[in-house]
Amino acid sequence: QPRWLVPRHRMFWVDTRLGTRTVRAAPGLPAGRAEKLGDGSVAALSPGGVLAWQDADAAPRRIGGGGLASAFTTAAAGNAWVYDAAQGRVRVLTPRGREVHSVRPLARSAGLQFPQQIAVFADGSFLLGGAGELWKFSSTGIPAWRMDRIPGPVAESLPSSFQLAVDRRAGSFVL
To answer: What is the largest CA-CA distance in the chain?
Structure first.
């Protein structure tokens, strides 16, 4: 899946399937992982937890303070889903940075140790993962299941850090 990468004031849109790279100036966006939103704007998350937006026609703006976000992704509607580590909730934000709603995952705090990955399905259910665990929650935040081992005969533990990709329509995911 193509991704934006933001190292030092430039964004690189890399499509590994086509072998292409597009470069765009990004002064003011934090270095880190970025995703394109529905209206052409871009959201970037710094390693320090700062989430910032840059519209196609405006200057970047930061959303929240430092240490706010530990994971984010975009949903089909173009909204950003952000895990707010300070408040222990998932915030759903429009491409303009306005909060649409939020969900507090109902899980023991020891189980959600600073999630680093979030993925959203078409029905609004979502995955939160990191620190060797992966949780699935309903759209209201009720846990559906928790996984800390890779299924199969060997049953290895999940690594402490991993990436997620989802097929929103099929409801499947890949670690």
So the answer is: 53
Q: What is the rounded distance in angstroms from the CA atom of residue 32 to the CA atom of residue 91?
A: 20
> How far does the chain reach from its first CA to its final CA, in angstroms?
14
Amino acid at 17: R
pLDDT of residue 2: 46
Question: Where does 16-156 show beta strands of DSSP type E?
Answer: 20-25, 32-36, 42-45, 51-54, 61-63, 69-74, 80-84, 89-93, 99-103, 117-120, 126-130, 133-137, 143-147
The b-or-e profile of 143-153 (16+ CB within 10 A means b, else e) is beeeeeeeeee
Edge-to-edge strand order for the sheet containing 61-63?
20-25, 10-15, 3-6, 32-36, 42-45, 51-54, 61-63
90, two tokens = 């998932």
C-beta of residue 158 within 8 angstroms of C-beta of residue 132: yes
Q: How far apart are CA 29 and CA 65, in angstroms?
A: 14
> 34 near 50, Cβ under 8 Å?
no
* Long-range contacts formed by 4-9: CB under 8 A, 24+ apart: 4/33, 4/34, 4/35, 4/36, 4/42, 4/44, 5/33, 5/34, 6/30, 6/31, 6/32, 6/33, 6/34, 6/44, 7/31
| pLDDT band, very low/low/confident/very high, at 84 (cuts 50, 70, 90) | confident
